[in-house]
């Protein structure tokens, strides 16, 4: 007997950040977006441009490709996290070092307006306002979303965007 995944009656908008710096970066990201969209209870509704970004934290590694997506989901936050981790694992992600190279990384940036502080699940993501690689694509899909007392647009304008390159690639949803 399989147990049902807890679902909300009304969908909530969540915003996810995705990044890759191992292998075919665009394929890794596009496959993760497709896997999310194919998940029951998840529908991708907006997609930022692709951004080539300098590594953050551990800087001695290849550049990343990053995007942000907005989804509508009936999955509870913990189930959305488990879905993201499963997709990462199925893509071949192995967690060896913090901020190290990765095939795919999927972070929950926002889950509606909820504030969640649980083991391994902190929403809004605690480093949003410090990371240009998140803010650049986030401006594309949620410029007026608030991070504390500033909008995403204001936070992005106040941060050093050195090493961030917007790519003019067609987005496929």
Strands, helices and their partners?
Blueprint: E1 7-20, H1 25-37, E2 42-47, E3 50-53, E4 64-75, H2 77-90, E5 105-111, E6 116-118, E7 121-123, H3 132-141, E8 146-147, E9 150-151, H4 152-157, E10 164-167
Antiparallel strand pairs: 1-4, 1-5, 2-4, 3-4, 3-10, 6-7, 8-9
Structure overview:
By secondary structure, this protein is an alpha+beta fold. Helix content is 25%, strand content 33%. The chain has helices at residues 25-37, 77-90, 132-141, 152-157; strands spanning 7-20, 42-47, 50-53, 64-75, 105-111, 116-118, 121-123, 146-147, 150-151, 164-167. The strands form three sheets. Strands 1, 2, 3, 4, 5 and 10 form a six-stranded antiparallel sheet that branches. The protein has a two-stranded antiparallel sheet with strand order 6-7. A hairpin with a 2-residue loop joins strand 6 and strand 7 (121-123). The longest helix is centred in the middle third of the chain and has 14 residues, at 77-90. The model has no long low-confidence stretch (mean pLDDT 88).
Would you summarize the structure shown here?
This protein has helices spanning about 25-35, 75-90, 130-140, 150-155; strands at about 5-20, 40-45, 50-55, 65-75, 105-110, 115-120, 120-125, 145, 150, 165. By secondary structure, the chain is α+β, with helices and mostly antiparallel strands.
DSSP helical segment count: 4
Q: Termini distance? A: 34 Å
Helix amount: 10-25%
Per DSSP E runs of 2 or more residues, the count of β-strands stands at 10
Order of helices and strands: EHEEEHEEEHEEHE
- Poorly predicted regions: none
Structural class: alpha+beta
The quaternary structure here is: single chain
Biggest beta-sheet profile: 6 strands, antiparallel
Quote the average pLDDT: 88
Radius of gyration, in angstroms, nearest whole number: 15 Å
| Fraction in beta strands | 25-35%
Shape label: globular
């Amino acid at each position: 007997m399989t147990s049902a995944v807890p679902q909300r009656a009304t969908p909530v908008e969540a915003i996810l950040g995705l990044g890759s710096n191992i292998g075919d970066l665009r394929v890794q990201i596009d496959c993760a977006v497709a896997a999310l969209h194919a998940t029951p209870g998840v529908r991708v509704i907006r997609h930022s441009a692709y951004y080539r970004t300098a590594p953050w934290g551990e800087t001695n590694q290849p550049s990343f490709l990053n995007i942000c997506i907005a989804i509508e989901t009936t999955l509870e936050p913990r189930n959305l996290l488990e879905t993201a981790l499963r997709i990462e694992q199925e893509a071949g992600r192995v967690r060896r070092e913090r901020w190290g190279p990765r095939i795919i990384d999927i972070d929950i940036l926002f889950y509606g307006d909820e504030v969640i502080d649980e083991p391994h699940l902190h929403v809004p993501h605690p480093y949003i306002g410090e990371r240009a690689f998140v803010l650049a694509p986030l401006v594309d899909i949620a410029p007026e979303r608030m991070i504390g007392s500033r909008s995403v647009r204001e936070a992005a304008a106040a941060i050093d965007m050195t090493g961030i390159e917007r790519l003019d690639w067609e987005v496929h949803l």
